[in-house]
Structures are given as structure tokens and as C-alpha cells.
Amino acid sequence: MLLESLLTIYLKRNFASSLSFNEFEDVDPPAPNNDTDYLIYVHIPFCEELCPYCSFNRYVFEETLAKRYFKALDAEIEMYRRLGYDFKSVYVGGGTPTVIPGEIALLLNKLTRNFGIKEISLETNPNHLTDDIVQILVDSGVNRLSVGVQSFDDSMLKQMSRYHKYGSGDEIKERLARVQGRFDTLNVDMIFNFPTQTIDMLGKDIAVIKEIRADQATFYPLMVSDMTRKELSKRFGRISYRQEKQFYQEIYNLLGDDYSIGTAWCFSKKKSMIDEYIVDYSEYVGVGSGSFGYVKGQCLANTFSVTDYIDQIGTEKFPLMAKKEFDLLERARYYFMIGLFSSSLDLEIAENVFKGKFQKTLWKEILGFQTVGALQRDGKVLRLTPKGLYLWVVMMREFFTGVNNFREICRASGTL
After folding, report:
1. HEC per residue, 247-283
2. Residue in 36, 37, 55 with CA at minimum distance from that of residue 45
């Protein structure tokens, strides 16, 4: 436990530094690399209701504003096409991307016409698993559907304010079972380590996932940002990480026989896209209000104000609000963390990417994780040990918590 605590302190300090954006005026994206496969992340920031634990950029759905937003999205994507970008993969997140299914269909159809798209992943909620919406998504070429479930336990769903929106755990299970097989991959998004959650509850959740034979399950540790801590504590009690490791080991043990590790917290029956697309794509473009991109060592952030976003697109200006250019150490740490999140990292490829400076730059980090038993070297490949898998869950939890804190600072500085 001491190791995890020290690691958390170390990570918070480093991630705070990495997310300190240093350019805020006249930010433009760089031109693309011709030899790079790019993913495009599309953010839809509208939800019918807002969940108390979510720190993503999201607003209560208004149809008129949402339609204006989709028109601006189309224009922003066209701006990247004119800049020379091509995209091999699409990930649509939110918010709730399926709040206007017809607009999503138009957007995806245009993307597949204009770019070399090979795969499409899209997020949704259980109440949108209707025959009409599912058929629209199938016809639009969605390969992977990621459904935010979080838990099948009714008491947990009520504490999360999801029961009245999406129904009971049994109802959600039935909807998922009907959808299974309609897409190449059905992913079930779950959260573990709520203060009122028990190992027994977690075990029952996993049993449901195995019963419906979901293609993939992603178990996120509870991520508590500065702005969500008070509301979460009010609903669930004091937030603690004391049981997190035990919960994770239970997930690993119960899913290990039927699923393989896609990432430290994603378990798949077959090779597939995952929620953490940054693992498979070293560079990606973010479009939409509050989205992030990472191109040529630069982290780019779009404005978090929806109206600001629409207005800037209207003047044919990229809606970027900030840029951070990573130095060599920051880029190497990012590559190290993301690469090993999938459980292994090819050192030969890493040295090629960093022109022979990767291990020289990160020798302390590599040695440290080897010393504590988190990493083992297999020829020219670094692999996570079972102990290392959980430590990488801690790393990614802290990384995304830092991103969430940055999102909230940005949201607070603007208005809808």
C-alpha cells in the first residue's frame, strides 16, 4: 500500500506539470505527418441528465443548440481535411452521442465518405438500446458499441442517479443481451471502488457480464476529480482507495478465464478497439467542444464553451483554446505510460520513435518499476507483471483524474 501511495504522489506532481498548458492565443494545429495513422475523436457534450461522478465536458441536452453544434462539428472536421489529415478510425464519446441518432448517422456517413475510415467506436447509454437506434448505428457502420452501465446492482444505480433514467439492473441486462451480436464488439463500461460497493456486488456484476457473453468489459476505477469529490462523498460516503487493489484482483481473477487483457482495465474476448484509443493510436485529433488532441508532441485542447465553439467555427477559425508542447522527458513518459497500459512495450520501436534516446531518458523509471516487481524484460520487450497491471491502473487513474481537473478549470472559465 505504501508503494501505491508514493506512486500516486509522484504521478500527481508529474501530471500536474504535463497538463500546464503554456499557449493560449492564436493556437492552430500542426500539419499532419504523411506516414502516421490518425484517429479522430468526436465529442458530443449533451446528456439528458448529468451524472454526479462524471467530469467530461457535458451539458443538459437542448435540441436546437445540439443541431447547431452538429453543423459546427461537420465544419471543423472539414477544416482538418483541408489541412491534409486523413483518419483511419473514429471514436465518438460524450456526453451521450446518441441523443440525436439521425445527426450521428449523418456525421458518420460523411466521415466514411471523406476519409479512409476502417473502424468506428461509439458510446451510448442503456436507454438508447432501442431497435430503431441500434439499427441506425449498424447502418452507419459502427463496429464497436460501448455502453455505460457502471453497475447492475439496483442500490448502486439509485445512488448514482441512474436507476430512474436507465431502469433496474435486470432491465439493463436484458437490453444488453438483445444487442449482443449486432456489432463486432459490445463493450460494457463498469466502475469499481465506490465506497458502498462490496466484493459480493462486484462478483455479481461480473457474473452478469459473463452470462450475456459481452465481447468486452472495461472496469474503470472510481476517478474523483476536485469538483466531483463533494457530491460523491455526499452520496456514497468517504472516498478511499484502501479496497481498490482487492477489487481489481477480483476483476482480474474472475474474468481471466474467459477474457484476455486488452489494457490493464479492459478485458476482451477478441482483438478490438478499446475506450482508451490513445493506446492504439500514438497521434489523434480531437473535434468538438472540450476535446483533446495529441499531434507531433503537442497536446491541443478545444474550447469548453459550446457557444464559443460554434461561434469560432462560424469564422472558420480552429476552436483551440490551449496548446502544450511536450519536451523529450514528457513525451517519453507519456509513451511509456500509454504503451505499457496495454501490458507490453517494444523497446526497439520505442528507440526508433525517440531516435535512440528512450531508455537513456527513462532509465530511472524503468529501473524503479523493475525493482518493485512491476516490470520484467523479455528480450527487447518490457512486460507488466500481475503486480504491474494494478500499478498501471493507479497510473492511469491519476492521469485521467488530472485531465478531469483540467477540464473543470476550463469549464469554470467559460459559459454555455
Report:
1. HHHHHHHHHCCCCEEEECCEEECCCCCCCCHHHCCCC
2. 55
Phi and psi of 364, rounded to 5°?
-65, -45
Q: Are 28 and 322 in contact (CB under 8 A)?
A: no
CB 37 within 8 A of CB 356: no
What single-letter DSSP state applies at residue 127?
Answer: G
Query: How does pLDDT run across 397-410, given as a tens digit for each residue?
Result: 888 877 766 766 66
Cα separation, 279 vs 319, in Å, equals 25
Q: What is the chain's Cα-based Rg?
A: 21
For the packed helices 2-18 and 386-412, what is the interaxial angle rounded to 10 degrees?
Answer: 40
All three cell numbers of 361, joined, read 531518458
For 150, the 3-state DSSP assignment is strand
Closest CA to 137 of 108, 176, 99: 108
CA dist., res. 264 & res. 220, Å (int):
10
DSSP secondary structure, 339-394, as one string: HHHTTEEEHHHHHHHTTT-HHHHHHHHHHHHHHTTSEEEETTEEEE-HHHHHHHHH
Q: Does domain 23-279 have CATH number 3.40.50.1440?
A: no
Helix, strand or coil, per DSSP, at residue 93 = strand
CA–CA distance, 47 with 233 (Å, rounded to integer): 23
Domain assignments of the chain as residue spans, ordered by start:
23-279
Query: Nearest 10 degrees: CA dihedral of 326, 331, 337, 338?
Result: 90
Residues 6+ apart with CB under 8 A from 327: none
The answer to whether 142 and 183 have CB atoms below 8 angstroms apart is: yes
Residue 6 CB neighbours (<10 A): 11
Which residues lie across from 100 on neighbouring strands? none
Task: For the chain, list residues with pLDDT below 50.
Answer: 415-416
Contacts of 397 (CB under 8 A, 6+ apart): 221, 223
Query: What pLDDT, on the 0 to 100 scale, is given for residue 415?
Result: 42
Closest of 139, 112, 136 to residue 124, by C-alpha: 136
Q: How far apart are CA 232 and CA 223, in angstroms?
A: 10
Classify residue 193 as left (phi > 0), alpha (psi -120 to 50) or beta.
left
Longest dimension (CA), the chain: 57
Whole-number pLDDT of residue 410 = 66
* CA-based nearest residue to 294, from 22, 14, 32: 32
